[in-house]
């Protein structure tokens, strides 16, 4: 049986992974062709972002048909072959499911617009407070009001995201039954697990104005969320212990996650939380330029690590995904210590308690592209906020600077396979431009280099398999107030592990509470280590994993 605690997940954004037919879009056959590369890395699961039929208003997270593969990605036969070929290599597929909302092009919503009472009740329609005034003042995650008026119905529908993403009504048992049938269908097609998009938003509470925030307190971790997840678990994936699940939790709380990802397994296997990735925000506002708060980063990660362990609940641990900027551009040093900082950041995450997720290209140290023209950006959120930022009085230059840091497109540029045109991603014109540094940051070069970031990630993946202390051990933060070091101790059945990382470009001295000379070095991003008794000299972005039985 596959143990998700000893597993590593590799996320693929198919649109940007590998294109086999020259149309500029990655496809499922591209994933099949690169399975040996993924096998070489050593991961256990591939998480595929949505490849279902969609108008692609939100890059596939606006699903118009849950049961069919979007022709631009391939066919159902391609998916079945992918599942079979992955299985041959000991890799399982984790599918992305979006059940908070559907595309407004979905058959259900189109019938709702026609006034069909059955399907109208699949969504959240409400009368305005008065003519021309939406039911509440809630804000969409993508900007603007979260309600859209439908003249023919004289009602508004809720869309917490884009206007083309209508929220489903989970109060309706028929909606929940539809969701169950979709999951069963894909299990039958060979899915080995599921990632549930913004799943903690599916239970709405009171529909009233929010004069303290943007409305999220009325729909985040709502009153029936745990009931809905337990019901879904019992009816579908909970019937097979091999199926692994992860919930994307938007603005969630630790207390809720004890239940979402508890040891009893009645809801989900694990959760994504994002609090640690808001340390370069100002409050909840990400469209700003502020230095990341290192102390806050440590405090949040360690708080979740320790308390989730105390409550026997499980984290997904990660830096990157399709919604986040490239971590080496965000918290590393691309200019002077690209390789060292990328390796260090990988070590920090992979030795934590939880299941690590690698986002495509992270194992290569891919960076943000630094786009300078709005035409280069494809993401609806980025385009909307480019306009909003200027309406707030920022210059075009300042707006671009913010997008270069925070845009979701930073992670969506094509996978860099080699040094050739378009990084070997496509023979056509890519749907989004390739990052120009692919001449030296690419898979071909890193597979051949024993000191590459890829090889470091490969070692990290193997460490989790070889050392139970990483998968099952307790965790203790060390020297938490240190202004430069990110350090922690893992313990398990008499074994001990120290993970010591320098987060900055200056040499620092770090002191342990015991003599470290008896520990062996399992992994480091420098050729040697400078350990003297309980004292460790850490060079810029140095990372050391020490172990003693």
Structural description of this entry:
The chain is of the alpha/beta class and 549 residues long. Among the domains are: 107-167, Oligo-1,6-glucosidase, domain 2, CATH 3.90.400.10; 372-406, no CATH class; 471-548, Immunoglobulin-like (Sandwich). Helices cover 28% and strands 18% of the residues. The chain has 16 helices and 23 strands. It has helices at 28-33, 35-41, 76-88, 107-113, 117-120, 173-188, 225-235, 254-260, 294-310, 327-330, 338-350, 380-391, 396-406, 443-448, 453-466, 468-472; strands at 9-12, 45-48, 52-53, 65-69, 92-97, 101-103, 125-126, 147-150, 155-158, 165-167, 193-196, 244-248, 270-272, 316-317, 355-359, 474-478, 485-492, 495-502, 508-511, 520-524, 530-532, 535-538, 543-548. Strands 13-12-11-5-2-1-15-14 form an 8-stranded parallel sheet. Helix 11 (338-350) runs parallel beside helix 15 (453-466) and helix 12 packs antiparallel against helix 13 (396-406). It is globular and about 75 Å long. The model has no long low-confidence stretch (mean pLDDT 97).
Taken as a percent bin, the fraction of beta residues is 15-25%
Structural class: alpha/beta
Return the CATH architecture of the domain at 471-548. Answer: Sandwich
Main sheet record: 8 strands, parallel
State Rg.
23 Å
The unreliable regions are none
Number of helices: 16
Q: Quick check: average pLDDT? A: 97
Q: Give the CATH level 1 class of the domain at 471-548.
A: Mainly Beta
Q: The CATH topology of the domain at 471-548, please?
A: Immunoglobulin-like
Shape: globular
- Tell me the number of strands: 23
Order the strands across the largest sheet as they lie in space: 13-12-11-5-2-1-15-14
Distance between the termini: 27 Å
């Amino acid at each position: 049986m596959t143990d998700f605690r000893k597993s590593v997940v590799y996320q693929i954004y198919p649109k940007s992974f590998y294109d086999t037919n020259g149309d500029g879009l990655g496809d499922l056959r591209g994933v099949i062709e690169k399975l040996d590369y993924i096998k070489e890395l050593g991961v256990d699961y591939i998480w595929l972002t949505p490849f279902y039929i969609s108008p692609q208003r939100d890059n596939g997270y606006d699903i118009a048909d849950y049961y069919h593969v979007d022709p631009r990605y391939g066919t159902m036969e391609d998916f079945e072959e992918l599942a079979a070929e992955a299985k041959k290599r000991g890799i399982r597929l984790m599918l992305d499911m979006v059940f908070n909302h559907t595309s407004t092009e979905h058959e259900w919503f189109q019938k709702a617009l026609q006034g069909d009472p059955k399907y109208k009740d699949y969504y959240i329609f409400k009368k305005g407070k008065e003519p021309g005034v939406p039911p509440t003042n809630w804000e969409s995650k993508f900007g603007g009001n979260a309600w859209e008026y439908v003249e023919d119905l004289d009602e508004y529908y809720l869309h917490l995201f884009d206007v083309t993403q209508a929220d489903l009504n989970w109060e309706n048992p028929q909606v929940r039954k539809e969701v169950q049938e979709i999951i069963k269908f894909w299990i039958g097609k060979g899915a080995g697990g599921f990632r549930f998009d913004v799943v903690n938003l599916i239970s709405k509470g009171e529909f009233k104005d929010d004069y303290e925030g943007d409305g999220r307190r009325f729909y985040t971790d709502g009153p029936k969320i745990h009931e809905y997840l337990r019901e879904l678990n019992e009816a579908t994936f909970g019937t097979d212990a091999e199926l692994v699940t992860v919930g994307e939790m938007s603005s969630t709380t630790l207390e809720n996650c004890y239940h979402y990802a508890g040891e009893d397994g009645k809801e989900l296997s694990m959760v994504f939380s994002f609090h640690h990735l808001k340390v370069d925000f100002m409050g909840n506002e990400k469209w700003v330029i502020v230095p990341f708060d290192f102390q806050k980063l440590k405090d949040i990660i360690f708080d979740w690590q320790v308390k989730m362990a105390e409550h026997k609940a499980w984290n997904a641990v990660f830096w990157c995904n399709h919604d986040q900027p490239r971590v080496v551009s965000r918290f590393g040093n691309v200019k002077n210590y690209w390789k060292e900082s990328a390796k260090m950041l990988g070590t920090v995450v992979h030795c934590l308690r939880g299941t690590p997720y690698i986002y495509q290209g992270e194992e290569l140290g891919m960076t943000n592209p630094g786009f300078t023209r709005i035409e280069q950006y494809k993401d609806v959120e980025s385009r909307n906020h480019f306009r909003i930022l200027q309406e707030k009085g920022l210059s075009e230059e300042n707006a671009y600077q913010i997008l270069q840091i925070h845009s979701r497109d930073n992670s969506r540029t094509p996978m860099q396979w080699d040094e050739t045109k378009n990084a070997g991603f496509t023979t056509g014109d890519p749907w989004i431009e390739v990052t120009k540094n692919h001449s030296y940051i690419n898979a071909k070069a890193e597979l051949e280099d024993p000191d590459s970031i890829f090889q470091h990630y490969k070692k990290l993946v193997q460490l989790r398999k070889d050392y139970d202390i990483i998968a099952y051990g307790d965790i203790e933060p060390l020297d938490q107030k240190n202004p430069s070091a990110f350090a922690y101790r893992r313990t398990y059945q008499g074994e001990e592990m120290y993970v010591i990382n320098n987060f900055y470009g200056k040499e620092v001295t770090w002191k342990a509470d015991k003599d470290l000379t008896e520990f062996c070095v399992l992994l480091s991003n420098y050729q040697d280590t400078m350990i003297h008794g309980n004292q460790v000299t850490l060079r810029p972005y140095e990372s050391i994993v020490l172990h003693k039985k």
